[in-house]
Design goal:
By secondary structure, the protein is an all-alpha fold. Helices cover 43% and strands 0% of the residues. The chain contains four helices and no strands.
């Protein structure tokens, strides 16, 4: 980690001020403790800082940015007709975009996000 005023990693999801719904999402996805990439990335993303995270396939990278993104979305006022989107995820391939979509759908289901 580099940069000014580095943000400390977490060792437990309990260190975050998560709402009941996100706690249910964690339970549903069987996340008991954050993975190494999530320990570093989630607090950085929640703080609105820029980052690049590199980790192996299956390490929880997608959830590491989806969870803070959904927290941000739920903290916004409800959109009026024709407004939006609040968040946008870009991916370099159709296959990766589809993987992210499936994970986002699982995470956003309890919030009734689409």
């Amino acid at each position: 980690m580099t940069g000014e005023d580095p943000i400390r990693p977490i060792s437990s999801f309990d260190q975050l001020s998560l709402d009941k719904t996100m706690k249910l999402v964690l339970e549903k996805l069987n996340y008991k403790t954050p993975t190494p990439i999530q320990r570093q990335a989630i607090p950085i993303a929640l703080a609105g800082r820029d980052m690049i995270g590199v980790a192996q396939t299956g390490s929880g990278k997608t959830f590491a940015f989806l969870m803070p993104m959904m927290t941000h979305i739920m903290n916004q006022r409800e959109l009026s007709h024709g407004e939006g989107p609040i968040a946008l995820v870009m991916a370099p391939t159709k296959e990766l975009a589809h993987q992210i979509y499936k994970e986002a759908k699982k995470c956003g289901k309890r919030y009734k996000l689409r």
